[in-house]
Automatic annotation (TrEMBL):
Protein name: DUF4287 domain-containing protein
InterPro entries in alphabetical order: DUF4287
Species, as recorded: Nocardiopsis ansamitocini
């Protein structure tokens, strides 16, 4: 099994996260920020699946997007109201 999704699959998963999980992407980023200091993508993905009941695919997409934005120094969406 691949550890990463194709760019198309990743974009589809990211777009569907609010509908499927009931939380917006920035909320998942907050969860990762407050979560345990796990180093690897797979550890953080497994933590999300265990703690929040996410499927492995969505958990992995969230972690990869979080890492990508931090690596690119992109702005994490701040749609908090």
């Amino acid at each position: 099994m691949s550890l990463t999704h194709s760019p198309e699959k990743h974009a589809l998963l990211i777009d569907r996260i609010p509908t499927v999980t009931g939380r917006k992407l920035h909320e998942w980023f907050d969860v990762l920020e407050r979560g345990p200091g796990l180093a690897s993508c797979s550890e953080r993905s497994h933590w999300l699946t265990d703690e929040y009941g996410l499927s492995n695919g969505y958990a992995r997409a969230i972690v990869q997007e979080f890492d990508r934005r931090r690596r690119n120094r992109s702005t994490v969406p701040s749609q908090r109201s």
